[in-house]
Amino acid sequence: MANVTFCAPTLPKDITVYAVAGSKGTLLALAKEKAVPIPFQCQDGECGSCLVKITQLDNKGPKAQALTEREKTTLSVNGKLSKELLARAEVEDFPPAYRLACQYWVPDGDILVEFSGEPGVEIDLRK
Ligand code: FES
After folding, report:
1. What pTM was estimated for this model as a whole?
2. Which atom of ligand 1 approaches the CA of 100 most closely?
């Protein structure tokens, strides 16, 4: 079970939805079901338009979730996954912050999902 909070400059306020981990499919599928407007195009890990930043909000420790090969390639090409971060993800199971919503499964835990809300616009990170 998870509370997923979506945050974007284009949203009037943050949107928190409850999700059963694994039962909702990808994060993009959950967003679409809940009418959260994460930009997307290919839905296949190739275009990068569904780029999101994931922040874990609970205290259960970082939860690794394997990157798909397409996600690795697309994030790397877009400068969101360095070789160091990829190695850390693959060797230490440490989750990288940036993911593709169409490739990322809703985890078992509370997360903040930040996205720009506009196709092709970089995420304005919260500090
Ligand atoms: S929609 Fe194209 S990478 Fe996710």
Report:
1. 0.89
2. 4
Cβ–ligand 1 contact at 46 (below 6 Å):
yes
Q: Is 41 in the pocket of ligand 1 (CB under 6 A)?
A: yes
Residue 46 lies in a domain: yes
Whole-number Å distance, alpha carbon 45 to ligand 1 midpoint, is 5
Q: What is the pLDDT of residues 71-107, one digit of tens each?
A: 999 999 999 999 999 999 999 988 899 999 999 998 8
Whether 127 is covered by a domain: the verdict is no
CATH code at 101? 3.10.20.30
Q: Which token pair is 76? A: 């790397």
Residue 122 belongs to some domain of the structure:
no
Q: Give me the number of domains the chain comprises.
A: 1
Mean residue pLDDT of the chain comes to 88
Q: Mind listing the pLDDT tens digit for each residue in 101-126? A: 999 998 888 999 999 987 666 665 44
